[in-house]
Amino acid sequence: MLSVEEAIAAVLTDAEALSAESVSLNGLTGRIAAQDVIARLTQPPFAASAMDGYAVRFADMKQGAALKVMGEAPAGAPFDGSVGEGEAVRIFTGAAVPEGADHVIIQEDVTRDGETITVNASQEKPRNIRAAGIDFKEGDVLAHAGERLHEIHGAIFAAANIVKISVCRRPKVAVFSNGDELMEPGTDLKPGQIVNSNHYALSAMIAAWGGEAAYFGCASDDEESIRDYFRRGAEADVIVPVGGASVGDYDYVKSAFAKEGGEIRFEKVAVRPGKPTWCGALKGARVVGLPGNPASALVTAALFVQPLVRRLAGETWAAPFATARLAAPLAANGGREAYLRAEAKNGRIAPAPNQDSSLLFPFAAANALIRRPAHAPALEVDGEVEFVWLR
Ligand SMILES: Nc1nc2c(c(=O)[nH]1)N[C@H]1C(S)=C(S)[C@@H](COP(=O)(O)OP(=O)(O)OC[C@H]3O[C@@H](n4cnc5c(N)ncnc54)[C@H](O)[C@@H]3O)O[C@H]1N2
Ligand code: MOO
């Protein structure tokens, strides 16, 4: 059986960023830069006034001094000339500061009479001028290739006079469930039936990682039905079948996959939950098969589907591991590396009391998974554990 580390490496074999596409400034959030994004101009492009007032020479700022107003500099229309000794230019916030001025005295600090202003408050030091380029300079790298863009980047790129951004294509991820007992939400359940729930979380997680999830539906427990789902999924970059991965008489997913011509890369991982996780390739699609138990499916998605989606989406990413002290004791671990749903808060981490692999509700409060190495000893409260952030 592969270790988690070996399984991640196997899932990522030959996985590279998909081709790039050019997109406009709207809708960049969550996309991954395919190339470095370089500023096309300096921002601010000129020394600009931060206040409404008068552009002056600081050396003239003696209390009671009178200065002659030479003209006006509104935003967008620079003053044509420079500020000499004993002179001032009326200026407004955002306007280019004229040559010669090294200070803007705010209008509240002067008295104006015709074309003369009198300084009536002492000025401590030159201020109220934003130097050109204090935000960024032409040629600066505003986002690196592989960087995930967020809400602010559209505005940054716009300020840098860029209109199109090269981002990686989002991997298409075909998800399907499998099991005759699964009924859609809203159905009146017959004895033995349960609601098909996992894919709602899975699709949302895949989208958050930068993939385009498409839910294909639920195959029944027969090879023909499952083969049909694999055929339909083969157009995608990744296929994620959920359930039917174990050794039961009705677990047909891997045999259906093999009959479709799929090649298995691994069939089991030494992890809890999620031992039946498997991986393979079918035509151009990569396949990561997840166990059907909800916690097993979602933990293994975070461990194995996440790095693949992020890699194909072009992101430079490493699982965000950290350490914290336990808020509750932990029993010794068995022979499989374990990932426990937990809530990390204020430097402490609390594992959910029941880690059964069928439970969904503990995920509501969980923002992290505690990693327990195989055969890790029991730990008391305050014991240090390693964990990986879920979100
Ligand atoms: N004899 C053995 N039995 C089992 C083994 C084993 O090694 N030997 N492994 C166990 C482990 S570990 C897991 S995990 C499960 C996973 O098995 P499958 O992937 O075949 O999952 P299913 O049997 O299809 O389903 C398990 C469980 O989850 C429910 N389920 C499935 N899909 C969904 C869905 N989309 N939404 C909600 N719930 C779902 C399903 O009804 C079952 O209750 O196998 C153990 N058995
Ligand atoms: O590994 Mo299974 O995922 O424990 O329940």
TrEMBL record:
One of its GO terms (biological process) is Mo-molybdopterin cofactor biosynthetic process. GO terms for molecular function: metal ion binding; molybdopterin molybdotransferase activity. Its cofactor is Mg(2+). It comes from the Bacteria. Gene3D superfamilies: MoaB/Mog-like domain, MoeA, C-terminal, domain IV, Molybdopterin biosynthesis moea protein, domain 2, Molybdopterin biosynthesis moea protein, domain 3. One of its GO terms (cellular component) is cytosol. Pfam families: MoCF_biosynth (PF00994), MoeA_C (PF03454), MoeA_N (PF03453). Its EC number is 2.10.1.1. Residues 174-311 form the MoaB/Mog domain. Keywords: Magnesium, Metal-binding, Molybdenum, Molybdenum cofactor biosynthesis, Transferase. InterPro entries: MoaB/Mog-like_dom_sf (IPR036425), MoaB/Mog_dom (IPR001453), MoeA-like (IPR038987), MoeA_C_domain_IV (IPR005111), MoeA_C_domain_IV_sf (IPR036688), MoeA_linker/N (IPR005110), MoeA_linker/N_sf (IPR036135). Pathway: Cofactor biosynthesis; molybdopterin biosynthesis. SMART domains: MoCF_biosynth. It catalyses: adenylyl-molybdopterin + molybdate = Mo-molybdopterin + AMP + H(+). Belongs to the MoeA family. Catalyzes the insertion of molybdate into adenylated molybdopterin with the concomitant release of AMP. PANTHER family: GEPHYRIN (PTHR10192:SF5), MOLYBDOPTERIN BIOSYNTHESIS PROTEIN (PTHR10192). This is Molybdopterin molybdenumtransferase. It comes from Hyphococcus luteus.
